[in-house]
Amino acid sequence: MQYYSSNKKIFFIVFLALLNLNSFSQSYFTAGGVRLGTDWGITFQQRLLKHTTGEAIFQSSLFREELMLSALLEQHYPIISKRLNVYLGAGFHKGYLTSNNSTFKAPHGISAIGGIEFTIARFAISYDYKPAFNLSGGENTWYSQSGISVRYVFIKQNLFKKIKRKRKRKKRKTKRIERREQIFKRK
């Protein structure tokens, strides 16, 4: 009976956390870094909307003689806060052969991605699974990739909030000065 009660509490806490998903946005605007796993490379992420990012991944395979460029659109779902979130996305990839004596063409196709991300200070650390389906070319039709990405946050979300606040303060100050000038003109 006690087991059932504790599960109920956990479910209730998770439910409350999920209700607050819309109140948080991602904690950075622009980040870039390295991706290590079944393939290794570089990754660049740019926030496009409140919970949506565009990501470019340029990677080299450890098992195939290919380089791959992926362009992905990702939807982030915060868990408890904006610093911890899961994400899902999809996009396209284009491959480039590193060897001239390959028996296959350079691949291109559709990629998907799903993962979890944690942002702390100026670093975003994520683990993801990124399957790729080749529409043509490639050593195989299906690539199964996973990796850990460590990105440096170049532009924080707070930067834009600070600029906005500064503009509001300047606007208020200008209005106060104009009011004072109008009062002195009347006298």
Structure overview:
With about 190 residues, the protein is of the alpha+beta class. It has one domain: Porin (Beta Barrel). Helix content is about 25%, strand content about 55%. The termini are far apart. Mean pLDDT is about 80; it is low at about 15-25.
Radius of gyration: 24 Å
For the record, give the distance between the C-alpha atoms at the N and C termini, rounded to a whole number: 81 Å
CATH fold-level topology: Porin
CATH architect. name: Beta Barrel
Reported for the largest beta sheet, the result is: 8 strands, antiparallel, barrel
| Shape descriptor | elongated
The pLDDT mean sits at 82
Structural class based on helices, strands and sheet pairing: alpha+beta
Strand order of the largest sheet: 1-2-3-4-5-6-7-8
Separate helix tally: 2
Determine the strand fraction and express it as a percent band.
Answer: over 45%
Summary keywords:
Porin; 26% helix; 187 residues; alpha+beta; 8 strands
Q: What does the secondary structure layout of this molecule look like, with pairings?
A:
Blueprint: H1 2-19, E1 28-37, E2 39-47, E3 52-61, E4 66-79, E5 81-97, E6 108-120, E7 123-136, E8 142-156, H2 157-186
Antiparallel strand pairs: 1-2, 1-8, 2-3, 3-4, 4-5, 5-6, 6-7, 7-8
Nutshell version of this structure?
This protein is an alpha+beta fold and 187 residues long. It has helices spanning 2-19, 157-186, and strands at residues 28-37, 39-47, 52-61, 66-79, 81-97, 108-120, 123-136, 142-156.
